[in-house]
Amino acid sequence: MGLLDNLKKKKELQRLEKAAEESPSPQTFSALAERCFQVGDLERALEVAEHALKQFPLSDKVQATFKYIRKAQLQAKIRELNEVIRKNPNPVAYGQLAIIYKDMGETHKAVDVCRELEDRFPLSENSYMIIGEIREKRFREDLLASDGERAMTNLEHALEINPHNYKALLMLAEIYVRIGAFTLAIERLEKITSFAPTDDRVRNLMEECRELVNPDAEDEVEWLFRDVENKKRFANDIREVEEEGGKLIAPAEGPGPAAPAAREDTVKRRLERFDKLPGFLGALAVDRDGKALADKVPFHVNRESFDATIQKVYAVAHNAALRMDVGAFLRAEVRGGFGQLLLSYGDGIILGVMAEAKTRPELLEQAVKQALSGVSAATA
């Protein structure tokens, strides 16, 4: 019976592979990826899903399939690494586990792993690097001085352990360029050229820094970080320049970098799905600046009042998260006589959905997750 089952599975895979090859579509590729996943071939499933995502980046079906398979693969790796840490703890396993959590957006878990790594292996640079990367990313997104300063501190700690850490040196140099501390940026870039003298981008960045140094204008680093936070923009931007002779460093103009803008038609299409949610009272999608992108409000609900309420709740929650130094807003729940409100951040969009008190919370949670799933890929 086992042999017959295996033959059937093999024939089914061959059929799906042929269908994807002869009639490539979101449906045929998703079916093939899902079948590979079902038979336990996670590597092949992810390969097919990644290929489908490149071919059909706007397909909801492809995005959902890719995310599901990728998450399953990561969960399998998390279980494997936790078992390694339990039996034979080592800095590499801790570092890999923290990076997975970081890449999944579960930064609190990544930080917890890094703290345990630091306690057990104080001479490992991994914990400082990962926390430094998390803080540096938050600094670029939210422009908070505390994030920039903690990114700097952790990256400098990593360099105390490994003075030739290329990534730490470059990240520090770019932080210093962004806040206008060119002398410190040059010091870090010079260290890179001492062991990587042929790195053209580093040499070009260093030459531009030397042209921009003004000893009389460079203040204390702490003040420069505060200046970025107060002005809500960096002193300088670092660009990717393809044309010959183009400059890498340019004075920043306007507010700092924000999450990629979402295409409103895609977001509106996602919100239409909430018609199927029992007790649905309304939904609003906003960008990270609180700007409304799309809403879905039943006729018996006042649209203006609903939108204003969601935006106000988000603004309060977001500001509270920043004040408590836990990073930008990710999630909030409000319950009361009106029913229940769930706000969640994902893929550059904050989605607020209100439902009646009788609506099962798990149904609301699932509906929000599905609506946010893959929006960044769909709007790239």
Question: In a few lines, what is going on in this structure?
Answer:
By secondary structure, this protein is of the alpha+beta class.
Verbal overview:
- This protein folds into three domains: 77 residues, Alpha Horseshoe (Serine Threonine Protein Phosphatase 5, Tetratricopeptide repeat), CATH 1.25.40.10; 126 residues, Tetratricopeptide repeat domain (Serine Threonine Protein Phosphatase 5, Tetratricopeptide repeat); 115 residues, Beta-Lactamase, CATH 3.30.450.
- The strands form two sheets. Strands 4-3-7-6-5 form a five-stranded antiparallel beta sheet, sandwiched between helices. A two-stranded antiparallel sheet has the order 1-2.
- Helix 2 packs parallel to helix 4, helix 8 runs antiparallel to helix 9 and helix 8 runs antiparallel to helix 12.
- The protein is α+β, with helices and mostly antiparallel strands and 380 residues long.
- Helix content is 62%, strand content 10%.
- The protein contains 16 helices and seven strands.
- Strand 3 and strand 4 form a beta hairpin.
- It is globular, with a radius of gyration of 24 Å.
